[in-house]
Design brief:
Blueprint lengths: L29 H25 L3 E8 L5 H8 L8 E5 L5 H4 L5 H4 L8 E5 L8 H4 L1 H5 L12 H18 L2 E9 L2 H13 L9 H7 L2 H15 L6 E5 L3 H18 L9 H16 L5
Parallel strand pairs: 1-3, 1-4, 2-3, 4-5
Helix pairs in contact: 1-11, 2-11
């Protein structure tokens, strides 16, 4: 399936109202999407194996969304077949005192994936232009002098982030960005399910309901993020998230396309190394059996 329509063209003014959270593409039903995901999980495992062996590229996958949009579930399902040794998941919460004492990208830099790995950011530096923009008081905690707190701080942050991501991509840390686009009504249903199901209670905090009252402010902040930080080198994908099966299938498909585009290959073995391997084989074969 083609996912071009889910990509935000660089510089485009985005209105989230134009993006349908219930869109399910060409899939006939849930079963068809599940079957596709199943196949893709196997493909992803193979690609990751090559990525790891080649040890040249890394892939940073960023997930941003409103609460209950399905970030955790998407990570769980899409990455279920990959070797845990080649993957790093990092969830970013409210910053600590130590983190607030540093520049705002510091804690994210420390968590970047090594070459050969897939790094997943469950929330990311984009929170510095989302929750911090919606709740201005959070910016006051960032130890910045008054002259840095002018209105153009968001434009500056977008510029920093674009440059930072360009730096990453030039260093062959490829960047994929997903916004899971859940509707306000579907969020309400999922919150109620979290409250009504004892096994899901832990997923709900009263603060989630409070954040919901800032829904429109968040939508505006997201639109601004997409307009300013969807770039040629690191475009945003707006993934419909009211049907979890579509979200999972679409995200897996896009990750696979990205990895395929890197033309990954196992390292070529040099003639010297081939000779070494032949010698080792010879020694092993000559060993008396059962030793
Ligand atoms: P959750 O991902 O649901 O466990 O919640 C993490 C919480 O941390 C969310 O309420 C985020 O808004 C908050 N958070 C994440 N990053 C930041 C940040 N840079 N500044 C302030 N709050 C943040
Ligand atoms: Mg939460």
């Amino acid at each position: 399936m083609k996912y071009d329509r889910l990509v935000v063209p660089p510089g485009k003014k985005v209105r989230l109202k134009d993006y349908d959270p219930g869109y399910t593409g060409d899939y006939k039903d849930k079963e068809q999407a599940r079957a596709k995901l199943e196949t893709d999980i196997g493909r992803l495992a193979k690609l990751q194996d090559t990525l790891y062996a080649q040890n040249t590229y890394a892939l940073l996958i960023i997930f941003q969304a409103m609460d209950a949009a399905g970030k955790d579930g998407t990570i769980k399902h899409v990455m279920s077949g990959v070797n845990p040794q080649g993957t790093q998941v990092c969830s970013f919460k409210v910053p600590s005192a130590e983190e607030l004492d540093h520049d705002y990208l510091w804690r994210y830099c420390k968590a970047l994936p090594e070459r050969g790995r897939i790094g997943i950011f469950n929330r990311s530096y984009y929170e510095e232009t989302l929750v911090v923009r919606v709740h201005h008081e959070l910016l006051q905690l960032q130890q910045l002098p008054p002259e840095s707190l002018k209105k153009n701080i968001w434009k500056q942050r977008f510029e920093d982030i674009n440059n930072f991501e360009r730096y990453l991509v030039r260093n062959r840390i490829e960047v994929l960005k997903f916004f899971l686009n859940v509707s306000k009504e579907e969020q309400r249903r999922r919150f109620l399910a979290r409250i009504n199901t004892p096994e899901k209670n832990w997923k709900f905090s009263f603060n989630d309901a409070k954040e919901r009252s800032h829904w429109d402010d968040y939508m505006r902040a997201f639109e601004s993020v997409f307009r300013h930080t969807s770039t040629e080198w690191a475009p945003w994908h707006i993934i419909p998230a009211d049907q979890k099966w579509f979200t999972h299938a679409a995200v897996a498909d896009i990750i696979i396309s990205k990895l395929k585009s890197l033309k990954l290959a196992y390292p070529v073995v040099s003639p010297d190394r081939l000779e070494e391997l032949a010698k080792a084989k010879d020694l092993l074969e000559k060993e008396p059996a059962g030793d």
